[in-house]
Amino acid sequence: MSVDHNNTAIEAPAQPRRRLPLSLGGMVGATIVAFWVVVAIIGPYIAPHDAGALLDDDLFGHMRWKFPLGSDYLGRDVLSRILVGARYSIGVATVATFLAVLMGGSLGMLAAVSRGPVDMTLSRLFDALISIPSKMSALVLIAALGSSIPVLIATVAGIFTPGVFRIWRGLAINVNALDFVEVARARGESTAYLIREEILPNISGPVLTDFGLRFMFAVLLLSSLSFVGLGVQPPDADWGSLVRENIDGLADGAPAVIMPAIAIATLTVGVNLLVDNLPRRWSSTVEH
Amino acid sequence: MNALLVRLLVSRIAIAILTLLFVSVAVFLGTEMLPGDVAQAVYGQNATPDAVEGLRRALHLDQPAYLRYLLWLGRLLTGDPGNSLVNNLPIAELVATRLPNSLMLASVTIVVCVPMSLILGISSAIWQDSLYDRTVSLATMSLVSVPELVIATLAVIMFAVNLRWFPALSYSAGLLSLNQIFQLFALPVFTLSCVLIAQIMRTTRAAVIDCLRSSYVETAVLKGARPMRIVLNHAVPNAIGPIANAVALSVSHLLGGAVIVETIFNFPGLGRLLVDAVATRDMPLIQACVIIYCAAYLFLVALADIAGMLSNPRLRH
Amino acid sequence: MAPLVKVDRLCVTARDERGNNRAIVKDVSFEVQRGEVVALIGESGSGKTTIALSLMGHTRSGIKIAGGSITFDGQSLLDMRSRDLSIVRGRDIAYVPQCAAASFNPAHPLLRQVIESSQIHRVMSAAEAEAKAIALFRELALPNPDHIGQRYSHQVSGGQIQRLLAAMALVTDPKLVIFDEPTTALDVTTQIEVLRVFKTAIKKRGTTAVYVSHDLAVVAQMADRIIVLRDGIIREVASTGRILTQPRNDYTKILLAAAKPRVRAATNGIRKETSVPPVLKVMNVVAGHGAVDERGIPAVPLLRDVGFSIKAGSTLGVIGESGSGKSTLARVIAGLLPATRGEVLLNGTKLPRNAAHRTRDQLRRIQIVFQIADTALNPARSIGRILGRPLEFYNGLVGDKRRRCVAELLDMVHLPAAVADLFPSELSGGQKQRVNLARALAAEPSLILCDEVTSGLDTVVRAAILDLLAKLQRDLGVAYLFISHDLSTVKAVCDEVMVLYAGQRMEYGSRGALHQRPRHPYSDLLISSVPELRQGWLDGISEMMPKETSAAIAGVAGGETCRFFERCAVRIQGRCDVEGIPVRLLSKGAEIRCQRTEQELIELFTP
Amino acid sequence: MSDVGFGVEALRRGMSRRELTNLLIGSGMSAAAAGTFAISASIAHAQTPRRGGRIKVAHSQSSTAETLDPARAMNSSDNVRLFMFYNGLTRFNEELSTELDLAEEITPSQRATIWNIKLRRDVRFHDGTPLTSADVVYSLRRHKDPAVGSGGRSLVTAIEEITATGPREVRIILSGPNYELPAILSIWHFLVVKDGATDFRTANGTGPYECQEFQPGGRTIAMRNSEYFRPGKPYLDEIEFFGITDESARVNALLAGNVQLINSVSQRSARRIVTAPNLSLFETKCGAYQDLVIRLDQAPGSNPDFVLAVKHLFNREQIARAVYRNFATVANDQPIGPTSPFYDPGLPQRPFDLDKAAFHLQRSGFGNQTFPIVISPAARNSEEIALLLQQSGREIGLNFQLQRVPAEGYWWNYYMKRPIFFSSVPPKATPDIAFTTFFQSRAPWNESAWRNERFDALLLEARAEADTGKRGQVYREMQSLIHDGSGVCIPVFASYLDAHDSDLKGLLPIAVGGMMADSFAEHVWLDQ
Question: Residues C244, C356: one domain?
Answer without folding.
Answer: no
